[in-house]
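Re: [ENG-882] Designed sequences occasionally contain unexpected residues at chain ends

Forwarding the minimal case from QA. Structure tokens:
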């Protein structure tokens, strides 16, 4: 679940290593990937503009979630298509890692924020939404320009630098939002299944959410230090390449 951490998605796809692709995707696959990343970049820009407009109109940052709820759900759920790219081998990366990272954000979007309406006005929601938005605009722009072989250094730098702040910011917002949801989940019994029933199976969603929060403890440092390692490798490679030109 810590992979939901904004800004710190373990690097995958075209940007995980300095350009060392064995065999790039074919022309049709490349066209699809470019289109997908352009659409996703535009979608997250719409969310960013929506946040700014709502803030200017209200004069307050409280409860801005409602102004971008629909596009956020749409484009965050649209990230599920990323799993398909890896399953089909269009982009070389770990299917399991990608699925885990995407599903964790979709889970927070639908199973927590959407399902527990009482938390939607929490400032912690805005915290992870802002972190996700900045991260995704940079990430999808990075992928688009990488596919077109015209990656500006500024975007590369932002991709491997801003996560230092955005990842902890997003994770903090996610954890605080799950924590805020706990009393409402316990009171309502949301998504919980109690015995007896014909399947002889029980499930306590309240306990599950606590386990999700605990899972951040081992996963967050691992992904964060992985990204720091990638930053050193990618940016040092880029600097060396610029000097050699």
């Amino acid at each position: 679940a810590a992979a939901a951490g904004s800004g710190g998605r373990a690097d995958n796809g075209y940007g995980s290593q300095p350009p060392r692709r064995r065999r790039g995707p074919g022309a049709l696959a490349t066209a699809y990937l470019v289109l997908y990343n352009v659409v996703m970049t535009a979608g997250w820009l719409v969310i960013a503009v929506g946040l700014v407009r709502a803030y200017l109109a209200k004069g307050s940052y409280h409860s801005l979630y409602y102004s971008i709820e629909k596009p956020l759900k749409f484009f965050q759920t649209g990230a599920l298509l990323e799993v398909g790219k890896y399953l089909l081998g269009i982009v070389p990366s770990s299917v399991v890692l990608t699925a885990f990272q995407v599903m964790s954000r979709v889970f927070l979007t639908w199973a927590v924020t959407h399902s527990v309406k009482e938390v939607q006005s929490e400032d912690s929601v805005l915290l992870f939404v802002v972190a996700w938005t900045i991260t995704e605009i940079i990430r999808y722009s990075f992928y688009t320009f990488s596919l077109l072989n015209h990656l500006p250094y500024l975007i590369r730098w932002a991709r491997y630098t801003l996560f230092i702040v955005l990842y902890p910011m997003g994770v903090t917002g996610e954890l605080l939002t799950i924590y805020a949801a706990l009393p409402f989940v316990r009171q309502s019994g949301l998504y919980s299944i109690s015995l007896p029933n014909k399947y002889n199976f029980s499930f306590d969603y309240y306990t599950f959410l606590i386990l999700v929060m605990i899972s951040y403890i081992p996963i967050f440092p691992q992904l964060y230090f992985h990204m720091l390692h990638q930053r050193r490798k990618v940016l040092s490679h880029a600097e060396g390449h610029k000097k050699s030109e």
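QA comment: On inspection the terminal residues look reasonable. Confidence is low (pLDDT under 50) at residues 10-19. Proposing we downgrade this to a documentation issue.
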